[in-house]
Automatic annotation (TrEMBL):
Similarity comment: In the C-terminal section; belongs to the purine/pyrimidine phosphoribosyltransferase family.
Residues annotated as domain Glutamine amidotransferase type-2: 2-182
Enzyme class name: transferase
Positions that bind [4Fe-4S] cluster: C197, C343, C392, C395
GO molecular function, one term: amidophosphoribosyltransferase activity
Cofactor: [4Fe-4S] cluster; Mg(2+)
Details of cofactor binding: Binds 1 [4Fe-4S] cluster per subunit. Binds 1 Mg(2+) ion per subunit.
Source species: Sulfolobus tengchongensis
Name the UniProt record assigns to this protein: Amidophosphoribosyltransferase
Length: 402
């Protein structure tokens, strides 16, 4: 998983470094352990800063330039610098040398050399932004602007929101976009084979985002309503795990006319435990972001809704804390189908042997977690909410589109 960003000013008097910095903060929900920025100066030199830190901790005070690209991720160190360009990538790349010839003939390079479903943004020393979205549309990519002054390309429009920019449209699967100071050019390089990543809808995208023409907040509220149809539970309170699952809980409570409680408060910086690099951080991440509110749970039958479940470690700890504060019952609902297989496309879904849903039956999982019951959104329910079946479901069905 990664967030990528490109900004180009139409006048070289601009310094876009702070726009890149704050834009990356608007994308760090997609990856916060590694970040980097590449800046093009007036003398046509590209400078790079890349560190194993969250975007908000990246030091950029000495960086100045009128165009640049940025990266917020987990496992890779971007941007990569070549003789005449720099590039940031969302997705697995087997051979980075394919980008060496990119600026000479972008269309030919994509058609002949790119064999994986990757999305990227490149910056040339000549002052071009070149962006491409994989033909499946697995990785989101959007185009926007800041008045008539800046062109912006980012994984999600959340990077635009934080700097006051405007979303124009989403880049299509298989589409190549080339921007310089004078024009914007678009080419459909590969035929779209639409297989949108399901994890984007249920977990990855920020709740105020738009992905594949879907308002994420509205979609997740509908997931909560669908969970209520599939699993109506007698309870005293509905609680969503912050931040992603809160809309699920809203939809569920509305549909069944059950009280909705906040349930948790947070200390420290938000940590997305699915993206955490080790077991210790996963546990600490739960303690930092999920501190139960005693009066919201004591003596109550709780419906606890989460967006997904990987190993079950964080959810087990959460349920333990709810029990400790006096929850009478805890019924767990997951706003996605079961995760049973790893993702080869860069989403942080681990090997099958680590996935609790792939190895245990429902009753055993509930017992291991300390829950009274556990249920998952059905595939049919997912299709109903999204409105189509053009989805990558590899981590849920072991059937991959690529």
């Amino acid at each position: 998983m990664a967030g990528i960003l490109g900004i180009l000013a139409f006048d070289e008097v601009w310094n876009v470094s702070k726009f890149l910095y704050y834009g990356l903060i608007g994308l760090q929900h997609r990856g916060y352990s590694r970040s980097g920025i590449a800046i093009l100066s007036k003398d046509r030199n590209i400078s790079i800063k890349s560190e194993n830190v969250a975007p908000e901790d990246l030091e950029i005070r000495e960086m100045r330039g009128w165009a640049g690209i940025g990266y917020a991720g987990i496992r890779h160190s971007y941007p990569l610098l070549f003789d005449n360009s720099a590039v940031v990538v969302d997705g697995p790349v087997k051979d980075i040398s394919i980008f060496k010839q990119l600026m000479k003939d972008p269309e030919k390079t994509i058609e002949e050399s790119i064999k994986e479903p990757i999305t990227f943004i490149a910056l040339s020393k000549d002052g071009q932004l070149i962006a491409y979205r994989d033909e499946l549309g697995l990785k989101p990519l959007s185009l926007g602007g800041f008045g008539f002054d800046l062109a912006i390309i980012s994984s999600e429009p959340t990077a635009m929101y934080v700097i006051g920019a405007e979303l124009k449209r989403e880049i299509k699967p298989g589409e190549l976009v080339i921007i310089d100071k004078y024009h914007l050019e678009s080419r459909q390089v590969k035929t779209p084979k639409k297989a949108y990543c399901t994890i984007e809808y249920v977990y990855q995208a920020r709740i105020d985002s738009i992905v594949n023409e879907r308002e994420i907040y509205d979609l997740r509220v509908k997931i909560g309503e669908e969970l209520a149809i599939e699993y109506p539970i007698e309870a005293d309170s509905v609680i969503g795990v912050p931040e992603t699952a809160l809309p699920f809980a809203i939809g569920y409570s509305r549909k069944l006319n059950l009280p909705l409680d906040l349930g948790f408060t947070r200390t420290g910086s938000p940590i997305r435990t699915m993206l955490a690099s080790d077991a210790f951080l996963k546990i600490i991440g739960v303690q930092l972001k999920l501190n139960p509110i005693k009066s919201a749970v004591k003596g109550k039958r709780i419906v606890l809704i989460d967006d997904s479940m990987v190993t079950g470690t964080t959810l087990k700890n959460t349920i333990f804390n709810l029990r400790k504060l006096g929850a009478k019952e805890v019924h767990v609902l997951i706003g996605s189908p079961k995760l049973i297989s790893q993702c080869p496309y860069g989403v942080e879904v681990p090997d099958e042997k680590e996935l609790i849903s792939a190895n245990l039956d429902d009753k055993t999982i509930a017992r291991v977690l300390g829950a009274d019951s556990i249920n998952w959104l059905s595939l049919e329910g997912l299709f109903k909410v999204v409105g189509h079946t053009n989805l990558c479901l590899g981590c849920m069905t072991k059937k991959y589109p690529w």
